[in-house]
Write a structure and sequence with these properties.
single chain; about 270 residues; mainly alpha; Helix Hairpins
Length: about 270
C-alpha cells in the first residue's frame, strides 16, 4: 500500500475518533452499533448501485461512505470494556485471509476455483466449531432471494445439492410451476388494483416453492438471482417511466386508461 494511502486511512480514522471524543459532534457521539444499522445498509446499497451504473467516480465516493461506517463501528467498539479498534479488525481479517488461502500462502494445491471454494468451506468449518450447522452463517436478515441462495449454496459446497444439474433444476421449476397452476385454478381473478392477501396459505407456499426452485436453477446457470431480478426490475421501471413521460406529454391521466390503452402504450415503449 502506498505510504500516502496509509496516511489517508490514518487521518480518516483520527477524524472519526475526534467526532466521537468529548467535545466532538453531538450526533456522532450518541450513535450506537444499532442506531447505525440503517446507514450501513443504505451505504451498502449505494455501493451496489454505483457498481451497476459503472460509475467509477461515484463508486469511489460510495466506498468512502461505506468505509466511514466501518471506522465508526470500530470507534464505538473501542470505547467499550474489552473492545477493539480498527487495527484489531484489520488484523483479524488479514489472519483469516492467510489461513483460508493456503494455496497462496502455504503449500496446499487446489484444483481451480471450485477447489478453492471447497477448501474455504472446510477451513471455515474448522474455525467456527461452535456452529451446529453450516447454515448458521447465512444471515436471516438477508433479502429473501439472497438468503435462499445462501442456504442452498452452503450444503452444495460440501457435497449435498437438491438440484445437482441443470436438467434436475429445470424439472424442479416445472414441478413447482405446475403446483402454482393447480393453486391458481382454485382462485378467482383479482380485481383491478387489488393487492396481495395478508394471510398465508397454499398460494404463498406454492410461490415460495417456485421461487426457491428458480434460485436453484440460477445457481446451476451461475447467475446471481438477486442481481438478475434487480436488473429485470430496473428494466421494467425504466420502461414504465418512459410510458409515464409520454402520457404526460399527451396530457393523458393514467387512471383513465382502459386495459387496451394500457397495452398499446406499453407496447409503444418497447425497446
Amino acid at each position: 500500500m502506498r505510504d500516502d494511502a496509509v496516511e489517508a486511512l490514518r487521518s480518516l480514522n483520527e477524524v472519526v475518533e475526534r467526532l466521537r471524543a468529548p467535545g466532538g459532534c453531538p450526533w456522532d457521539r450518541e450513535q450506537t452499533h444499532r442506531s447505525l444499522r440503517p446507514y450501513l445498509l443504505e451505504e451498502t446499497y449505494e455501493v451496489l448501485e454505483a457498481i451497476d451504473n459503472a460509475e467509477p467516480g461515484t463508486l469511489r465516493e460510495e466506498l468512502g461512505d461505506l468505509l466511514l461506517q466501518v471506522l465508526m463501528h470500530s470507534a464505538i467498539a473501542m470505547e467499550e470494556d474489552g473492545g477493539f479498534d480498527i487495527g484489531d479488525v484489520a488484523g483479524d481479517v488479514r489472519a483469516k485471509m492467510i489461513h483460508r488461502h493456503p494455496h497462496v500462502f502455504g503449500d496446499v494445491a487446489v484444483d481451480g476455483p471450485a477447489g478453492v471454494v471447497v477448501n474455504w468451506e472446510k477451513l471455515k468449518t474448522a474455525e467456527k466449531r461452535e456452529r451446529l450447522s453450516l447454515l448458521d452463517g447465512v444471515p436471516a436478515a438477508m433479502p429473501a432471494l439472497a438468503h435462499a441462495q445462501g442456504v442452498q449454496k452452503r450444503p452444495a459446497r460440501v457435497g449435498f445439492d437438491e438440484t445437482p444439474t441443470v436438467p434436475v433444476a429445470l424439472d424442479a421449476v416445472r414441478g413447482a410451476l405446475a403446483r402454482v397452476e393447480d393453486v391458481a385454478d382454485e382462485l378467482g381473478e383479482a380485481e383491478r388494483g387489488e393487492d396481495w392477501a395478508s394471510e398465508a396459505g397454499d398460494p404463498e407456499i406454492a410461490i415460495g416453492e417456485l421461487l426457491f426452485a428458480v434460485v436453484a436453477l440460477a445457481r446451476r446457470l451461475r447467475v446471481n438471482p438477486e442481481e438478475a431480478l434487480r436488473g429485470r426490475a430496473m428494466g421494467f421501471a425504466s420502461r414504465f417511466r418512459a410510458l409515464e413521460a409520454r402520457a404526460r406529454e399527451d396530457g393523458v391521466d393514467l387512471h383513465d386508461l382502459s386495459d387496451s390503452d394500457w397495452r398499446a402504450r406499453w407496447e409503444a415503449t418497447a425497446p
